[in-house]
Design goal:
The structure is a homodimer. The first copy, chain A, is of the alpha+beta class and about 700 residues long. Chain A has twelve helices and 33 strands. In chain A, helix 3 runs parallel beside helix 4. Chains A, B: Keywords: Glycosidase, Hydrolase.
Chain lengths: ~700, ~700
């Protein structure tokens, strides 16, 4: 429905459409091709109420074309704060910053580059804005002051230090300025609230709803060394079973292929001479198998010939770059993976190197140039922004009624429904935590994988962060033995183990068990991601946009409706924790904290930095060693505080897309003051949970 | 003269013009506006012979427009090496690299960003290529392999380390690929040799000839602390005279202005209450005064109102960005400087911050956005590339018959005739030396200024590098006392001096005296820069393009016809020195080295890493304490080897542009085997040199 099309003198010509309840599309100038929305899923309907009017006065949005492309200006008020832009790494609140949407495996200082840039931001005023462009869009979030705003009294005094001289000066303007290069038009999507959380939910639902992982995806993933043979992989997989360390997924790194960098997508004859036997063996150990790859297709690959006419004009690592903007190229790529791997028992893939590295030291630069041209007509710049998304689409198309759980190194706009976690080789601990929060603003999931650690305490604290994230993953691609045997890389490879290795192993076991205890709660949080768009992991500001402290907290986050995590960084056991309004319980000790203020807290390495909202019923499972179709969970409900709201558990088969056809249950948990009550409703015939205990916590 | 205009099927439509002897212009597509050449000076005629045919087969140059702009491909042969791209910092030979021409005060890893990017490269095959664009042009110097080149046998084996996995793979292609964003056409200028040196000379002459500094510009410049008062500046200036340390120029840093960051361009009433008196006093001490500034115009400035309608739509540090692409804005800016400063005795300016800083930590980012628009019609991206150039033009226009010598933080294409030295806050010692070489490929001059040093030895070695560069400059903008009093910043400010301060002072005096001894030689080398285009400071490869070692040497360089410098880095007294063909003498000991090989050399701190070509007559002056209109030089000619070629000295008034009207002399120095002979020819009436001694060195 086109609401209006204005071209009055002075005003910007525009076409306004309401594209979903609470979602408006405003189009200026000549439409762009290969936009993110061209590849998106259909929206999931929102049950939120929607305002009748757009959340931003469209007449206040200015558009112009320029010699370089086009420029938009959107108004901001003085108090408004801005979050989002995808998987931002080293910043949180973005007002006052320039953010350049540029898919990149490194951050180039601090300019907005990201594995998963998303041209979407959300405001504390309760609305979201998406620039539907696959260009390297730049957002000047109130950084640039216009000359027309210049007042004679803004002159400042002399400075004599570098800090004085370069300090920002009136940099917080009241305009969000957006540049879209090379285009003469742009579509803006406005997402109404209510609230920041409401705007983000609306974005996620418009994208197709958040993903629902397979149940097994929520357990621990372990990725073994890159040059392991089948035998060494099986041995390591056996180690977890023998030592009762829960683990659901085993990942193979490049050595499973006959060629890598670029990829053959063919089993390595020396290391894996009998893939079927290997897959069977891992299946008998109850593992889901995940295969590493990237998309650059080596000349020896069976995919090379079929893709040769469907690839970009420049190579990466001597391999073709498939034209994933072409559905036929995605179909060829997917069909091969289906026949060669999925039909033979492979559960998932790790889609590596689908970002790029141009802005780093020359020797480490790689990827196709932006000037590349692909047969579909897409250019290299747009392909960079979309490659991770389209690569996921190529793989996901083969998972028709079987869910999968991908690792992916790049993603973008409207990725909410993709069952994928992002990961990185940048290992800054504070960044890894912040990325959990930032991912939640833009329909992304982040896996703070564990590999490099500074100390044993750092290993434990990083593992805790993994437990409290979208994925618990150890990525030991260069370690012969698990990192808890030895954190030093050379010694680990050499078989020189830490003297207290068993103690560390016990802690890791406990943490993987804790992850298993949380699986029903997390799975339920993911169901809210799918059906309501609610990010399972999200910044405090999302739920408390008016709380000035919450606006700045970038190292704590909410998990589902009831939990707050406050990870320890760099092996520390001490930190400041801010609690928003309400009362909060220490998950370990049940000590109660009044919200609206901060506390200096210490925790032993056995304690996890997890807190429970008063009034919650928290379902915790008995840990299971693995997850398969037969897995059921025995639940203990912890009741926090005197008058808890009803809790809930989401239930389905954990494996298929039956839930899209209504095959799921809501298991409602109620506490009447003395006893707990469980009621189940829905169309799923099975039963995933058995509630066996209720624990009252005051 | 248009030679041809082709638009045959398959070939690229183009217009070919010979624009000067040995210089061809090839234009593809729609011409760009605000190109570098639009602002260039008229060519100086070359007395080199010029080939009839372009040095590159124009039919092998491919052009196409794309969704992002346009792309050029130029052929390269397998053995060819590439140099240039302006003031490149951390790389030397550029084949195998991606170089992005982007004016920036930091290098963002290693991607080609530079204070002074120049879209010009020169090949060991003896030709130069300039892309006449003010866009952020990117050169892929054989880094990108086309898919059509893919052979089945290029597949490589598995890698399991980060190094293996990311190593370049067939990255050296045979194509130079150039992307010009936002434009649908481009002009390419081809410069013929003979040789690399010939191509660079032709480029410099086409640009208008290399600059000829005022004689005083070649002596030591000292910049005092930013918050000095007139009294403290005069005291420090007096210190040099009292202690017989030659110094010709004193520079005032920001504190001379009433407001800075942005600038008022008005004397500070507190620090400099009586500017005329101060200028007189410094003049009586025989100093040339240099004033720091940048162009961003503070609202309190007298320049603010006149520039308000002639400035960009975005501010920098709360100041206007003058539209220097408009000759009227340049005229206003220049005229003010003329009246307020030059007519009152100011000799020169330091034009700071005319680059930009976007790709660094958010807190330190500054400058106007690329999407800026200026009244002349130029956009922010082009203005970034041209701002340093145009700022120089605005200032230089007032120096009609009086030469000046500027410091400038950014420059670009066709800057050869501008009497300016570039400087930086990046203080890596190896980079500082490499930048001397790189500047020489593109008509730029680099001042490896001295400020931060690690040790006393580092101070001495850095000073030696300054002596052997286009400018010897101490930039003590944050030091209360000269760095040889105390290298530690806090202690220096505190008046805690080094115990061996006097010994250091003696060394600095000797080095400034050495600089004075070299002034006639350097001045003569600069005259060759002006009249013949020969860079006074240049890489060995420029003169020895077929010498495989010379192609890689990025830490030695030639000065004029006879000298080779091999600076010591980081305070070291040991290094490997490569000598090209011929014999070379140690300047200090007269020890002779056979060329075509390398030597491990040690030198004491009293020795300078300077070598003299056998067969040279090297004129050395008695040091003078300062340089003014009365200065004359007493010369000793050192004769190196048995059968020296004639030496020469260039002679003029050292101050005016009379040389452009032929008012100069050549003083020819000849050695007949027993005695020296001096002959003078030319139209200059005075005499700058008196040759008093000849020294024979075997």
């Amino acid at each position: 429905m086109i609401l209006c099309a204005l071209a009055c003198s002075g005003a910007t010509a525009q076409t306004i459409k309401k594209v979903a309840p609470g979602v408006w599309s405003i189009t200026y100038g000549t439409p762009e091709t290969f936009t993110p929305s061209m590849f998106k899923k259909a929206p999931v309907e929102s049950n939120q109420s929607a305002p009748e009017q757009p959340p931003v006065d469209i007449q206040d949005i200015r558009f112009k074309t320029t010699s370089r492309g086009c420029v938009l200006e959107l108004p901001m008020d003085d108090a408004e704060k801005i979050y989002g832009f995808g998987l931002q790494v080293n910043t949180f609140q973005q007002r006052g910053l320039r953010r350049e949407m540029h898919a990149s495996s490194n951050i180039v200082g601090n300019v907005g580059f990201s594995h998963a840039p998303v041209p979407f931001y959300v405001s504390t005023n309760g609305y979201g804005v998406l620039i539907n462009s696959s260009r390297y869009v730049t957002f000047y979030c109130g950084t640039m002051q216009k000359a027309v705003d210049l007042k004679d009294n803004t002159a400042r005094e002399l400075g004599f230090t570098t800090k004085d001289l370069y300090s920002p000066h009136n940099r917080y303007s009241d305009r969000m300025i957006v540049e879209v290069p090379s285009e003469k038009g742009v579509e803006v999507l406005l997402f109404a609230g209510p609230g920041m959380d409401g705007a983000v939910r609306r974005y996620n639902l418009y994208a197709g709803g958040g993903c629902l992982p397979p149940l097994w995806g929520l357990g621990m993933k372990y990725r073994g060394k890159g040059d392991f043979t089948d035998e060494r992989a099986v041995n390591l997989a056996g180690y977890f079973r023998e030592n009762n360390i829960p683990c659901t997924t085993y990942g193979l790194e490049p050595g499973w292929q006959s060629r890598a960098y670029s990829c053959s997508f063919v089993w390595n004859q020396q290391r894996f001479p009998e893939p079927a036997k290997f897959i069977n063996k891992m299946d008998s150990l109850h593992y889901h198998l995940n295969l590493w790859e990237h998309a650059y297709t080596n000349p020896v690959s069976p995919l090379f010939k079929p893709l040769k006419g469907k690839a970009g004009d420049y190579m990466v690592w001597g391999g073709l770059v498939p034209d994933f903007a072409d559905p036929k190229a995605r179909a060829i790529f997917g069909a091969y993976h289906d026949t060669a791997f999925v039909q033979k028992g492979i559960a998932a893939f790790k889609l590596d190197e689908c970002d790029a590295a141009d802005y780093k030291d020359a020797a480490a630069q790689w990827s196709f140039p932006e000037l590349s041209l692909f047969p579909s007509g897409i250019d290299g710049e747009k392909m960079h922004e979309l490659f991770g998304l389209l690569y996921q689409k190529a793989i996901l198309r083969i998972f028709q009624n079987q869910r999968t759980w991908l690792d992916v190194r790049s993603s973008g706009a409207f990725a909410s429904p993709y069952p994928s976690v992002l990961y990185s080789d940048m290992y800054n601990n504070a960044d890894y935590v912040r990325m959990i929060l930032n991912a939640g603003f833009s329909g992304l999931l982040w896996s703070p994988e564990i590999r490099d650690t500074r100390s044993e305490a750092d290993l434990i604290r990083r593992t805790q962060t993994g437990v409290l994230s979208a994925q618990l993953c150890f990525n030991s691609w260069y370690l012969s033995n698990p990192p808890w045997f030895q954190i030093d890389r050379a010694k680990n490879d050499n078989g020189e183990f830490l003297p207290d290795r068993k103690e560390l192993e016990n802690r890791i076991r406990s943490l993987s068990e804790l992850r298993m205890r949380l699986v029903p709660y997390l799975y339920t949080a993911f169901s809210a991601y799918h059906f309501d768009g609610e990010p399972p992991f999200r910044a405090l500001v999302m739920d408390y946009p008016s709380d000035d402290t919450a606006r700045t907290v970038d190292d704590e986050y909410l998990i589902g409706p009831s939990l707050l995590a406050a990870p320890f960084l760099d092996g520390s056991s001490h930190r400041n924790v801010y609690f928003p309004a309400g009362n909060w319980y220490d998950f370990n000790t049940n000590r109660k904290y009044a919200g609206g203020r901060s506390y200096e807290l210490d925790m032993t390495l056995d304690q996890v930095p997890l807190f429970v909202r008063e009034g919650s019923i928290l379902p915790l499972a008995d840990p299971v060693p693995f997850i398969d179709a037969q897995t059921g969970f025995k639940i203990t409900c912890r009741v926090y505080g005197g008058q808890p709201a009803a809790g809930s558990l989401y239930e389905d088969d954990g494996e298929t897309y039956g839930y899209e056809k209504g095959k799921y249950n809501h298991v409602v948990l109620k506490w009447d003051g003395n006893a707990g009550h469980v009621t189940r409703s829905g169309n799923f015939q099975g039963s995933l949970y058995e509630v066996k205990n209720w624990e009252k916590i005051q």
